[in-house]
């Protein structure tokens, strides 16, 4: 892992980030104010079994949402600044939303965009019933953690840039870098001390040089971002449209297409495919998922070294077990491994295959598969 220079870290950790200067044009000066005062809450008619905010937003799918209350998270969907919260009574319409920033005539459009972002057309409760019926361990995890760990349908460019920042990184640093990128977009408002911006366009991102990203503490990821932006701009019809068009392809084609972008290996490609491109059976294989697979699906591989070939075998094992929504099952199993969730589980979940005496050297497969062209 690359360490940040003290000066870069100090810049990145400022709470209210400003657009980079001098090269990119500065955004218009806007008076910042807290937008929560006149919040109007509208039921989404989603029970907690369909959407659990704590199991969905702070668990590594997106790094642009903030907890702005005990049961509340705030983020941006397109040009809309939105808060979601659970009601304290946990009724049938458990999840409500409010629009902090959107034209009054666009409120219906904003709700449609939010529902699309939340993938509400997919019944999570029914899916989990199917998973639980075929996997007793999944059923027990579901009982202890509850339902509602949804897979989001993010904007592809936004998702791509976030996961370019994720390479060999931790959630805290990824979030800081994503905040920096986000600050280049239009300011939408402030909620509970957090500033929110519309994600910058491809054109806006192209105005930032590799050196400027490096000075902001991005390290080698700076080159990935600027090179990817240039490559997307060269696509016929525009890079953002090209990314959205990948939703119409088969998973293998999507992975190959994404892997032609600088800094995108199989794991990052699978994350983008799952969290933004409707590839519901995509399996991002990292060390955590590898441990889950060798413990529960492929015990004969325990102790083996993770290779690109074994990555494919792990993904195949998940699909064979959980079907066309295997990526959703893998997401839940991954969440269950996080310290915040593991603390809620009985001790026997934490003790399975966690012997410290067994030392493994696991290498993430970040190389592009051979014969993959687009």
Oligomer: single chain
Distance between the termini: 31 Å
Poorly predicted runs of 5 or more residues: 1-25, 27-33, 352-374
Report the principal-axis shape.
globular
Class from secondary-structure proportions = alpha+beta
- Order of SSEs: HEHEEEEHHHHHEEHHHHHHHHHHH
Number of H/I helices: 18
Mean pLDDT: 83
Largest sheet: 5 strands, antiparallel
Indicate the proportion of strand residues.
5-15%
Helix content: 40-55%
Whole-angstrom Rg: 21 Å
Q: What is the number of strand segments?
A: 7
Strand order across the biggest sheet? 1-5-4-3-2
Topology readout:
Layout: H1 6-12, E1 42-46, H2 53-56, E2 66-69, E3 72-77, E4 80-86, E5 95-101, H3 107-117, H4 124-134, H5 136-145, H6 156-164, H7 171-182, E6 187-191, E7 194-197, H8 202-206, H9 210-215, H10 221-233, H11 239-245, H12 251-258, H13 266-276, H14 287-297, H15 308-322, H16 326-336, H17 339-342, H18 347-351
Antiparallel strand pairs: 1-5, 2-3, 3-4, 4-5, 6-7
Keyphrases for this structure?
single chain, 374 residues, alpha+beta, 5-stranded antiparallel β-sheet, two-stranded antiparallel sheet, 18 helices, globular, disordered N terminus, disordered C terminus
